């Protein structure tokens, strides 16, 4: 992997951190928020400090040969801890249990980092190694123990999280939580890459103990890309459910907003003057949809005195005979009544007596409201009602 192979993920993760900054600011008290921040920040730091050009600069800046290896070990340990804590809070449970498990992982990670620092200080690593630190110093006292401790801990924690993700994904199979399940399956693959990374490193280190360097390529050439891919997929797996569900929710809201356009255009003249003007397009679509639905409900209430029962009964009978579907027939009848009421009220025609009023029911259900809007645009019975009403008023 070249420098750019490391720095491109750093840039992507930095953009993600900036994009999530408002969320971090608002919800910093939440353990889930802190875990997501640690996950993104540690992933970015792992790529940044693992890049060969950065290794060279850090070693020169500190004046300590190979200190960048120690930094990478500590950062990756924080990444593993953040992944475990995030998974714990993601799944949920009693608050006291969550706090206890979180403290346990943080304490274990802190102890691991302290052990790395102590062993690194006791060892001797005078020759700078940008790519093959693990294998080059595999037989160096204290440093050898640091390397084995890091790889063993990484393998164990990664295997544990992978098993937990797999079990949870199976539990969610029948609970209609498809995006959460997909995210968990991505995490299983991601942690599988992490397991392969640690295993390849251990094999290469073990080969050095056996007196051969023929297996070094496993550590220097094959393992790093697997670690990079695993870190990227870990971030994606944790963020996928929230991002995907949010995107699906916004898409559905936008789709519903557009489908309500014909109905909203029909009754737009009856929106109360006190109602706020339509929000601009850059406002959240959920808020725009809520405003549009509120405008529709307010306008329907204002038009209620002009809902003619005869018009509704006639349109319903014709639509039912044509489609033989009562729900669709009801939508077309309600749309016809609304279209007539708009014309009658605009021309100051007398209201219908309460005994002769049609009750519009298509505004009571979310899907019925969309069907009502479609009927307003497409139903020939609605158009026929408009023409009949206009002719009748003209005759008067």
Number of strands: 0
The name CATH uses for the topology of the largest domain is Rhopdopsin 7-helix transmembrane proteins
Which class do the helix and strand fractions yield? mainly alpha
pLDDT < 50 runs, ≥5 residues: none
Provide the CATH top-level class of the largest domain.
Answer: Mainly Alpha
Give me the CATH architecture of the largest domain, please: Up-down Bundle
Please state roughly what percent of the residues sit in beta strands, choosing from under 5%, 5-15%, 15-25%, 25-35%, 35-45% or over 45%: under 5%
Report helical residue fraction.
over 70%
Order of helices and strands: HHHHHHHHHHHHHHHH
Distance between the termini: 84 Å
Q: Determine Rg (CA atoms, Å).
A: 32 Å
Count of domain modules: 2
Describe this structure in words.
This protein is mostly helical and 396 residues long. It has two domains: 3-248, Rhopdopsin 7-helix transmembrane proteins; 266-395, no CATH class. It is 77% helix and 0% strand. The chain has helices spanning 3-19, 21-26, 31-50, 52-62, 67-91, 95-122, 133-136, 143-171, 178-209, 216-259, 261-266, 285-303, 309-323, 326-346, 366-378, 380-395. Helix 3 packs antiparallel against helix 5 and helix 5 (67-91) runs parallel beside helix 8. The longest helix is centred in the middle third of the chain and has 44 residues, at 216-259. It is elongated. The mean pLDDT is 86.
């Amino acid at each position: 992997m070249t420098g750019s192979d490391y720095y491109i993920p750093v840039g992507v993760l930095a953009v993600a951190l900036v994009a999530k900054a408002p969320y971090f600011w608002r919800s910093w008290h939440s353990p889930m928020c802190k875990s997501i921040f640690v996950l993104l920040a540690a992933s970015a730091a792992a790529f940044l400090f693992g890049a060969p050009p950065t290794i060279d600069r850090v070693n020169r800046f500190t004046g300590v040969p190979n200190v960048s290896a120690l930094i990478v070990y500590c950062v990756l340990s924080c990444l593993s801890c953040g992944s475990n804590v995030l998974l714990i809070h993601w799944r949920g449970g009693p608050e006291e249990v969550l706090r206890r498990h979180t403290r346990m992982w943080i304490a274990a990670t802190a102890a691991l980092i302290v052990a790395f620092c102590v062993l690194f200080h006791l060892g001797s690593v005078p020759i700078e190694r940008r790519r093959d630190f693990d294998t080059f110093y595999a037989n160096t006292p204290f440093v050898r123990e640091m390397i084995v401790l890091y790889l063993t801990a990484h393998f164990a924690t990664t295997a544990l999280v992978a098993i937990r993700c797999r079990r949870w994904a199976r539990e969610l199979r029948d609970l209609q939580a498809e995006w959460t399940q997909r995210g968990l399956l991505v995490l299983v693959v991601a942690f599988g890459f992490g397991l392969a990374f640690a295993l390849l490193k251990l094999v290469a280190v073990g080969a050095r103990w056996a007196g051969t360097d023929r297996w070094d390529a496993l550590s220097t050439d094959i393992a790093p890309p697997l670690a990079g891919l695993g870190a990227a997929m870990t971030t994606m797996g944790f963020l996928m459910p929230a991002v995907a569900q949010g995107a699906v929710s916004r898409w559905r809201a936008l789709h519903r907003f557009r489908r309500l356009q014909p109905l909203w255009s029909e009754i737009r003249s009856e929106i109360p003057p006190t109602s706020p003007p339509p929000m601009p397009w850059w406002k959240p679509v959920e808020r725009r949809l809520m405003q549009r639905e509120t405008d529709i409900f307010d306008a329907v209430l204002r038009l209620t005195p002009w809902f003619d029962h005869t018009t509704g009964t006639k349109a319903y009978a014709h639509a039912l005979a044509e489609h033989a579907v009562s729900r669709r027939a009801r939508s077309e009848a309600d749309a016809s009544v609304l279209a007539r009421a708009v014309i009658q009220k605009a021309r100051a025609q007398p209201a219908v007596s309460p005994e002769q009023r049609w009750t519009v029911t298509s505004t009571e259900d979310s899907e019925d409201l969309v069907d009502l809007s479609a009927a307003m645009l497409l139903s020939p019975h609605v158009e026929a009602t408009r023409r009949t009403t206009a002719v009748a008023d003209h005759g008067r």
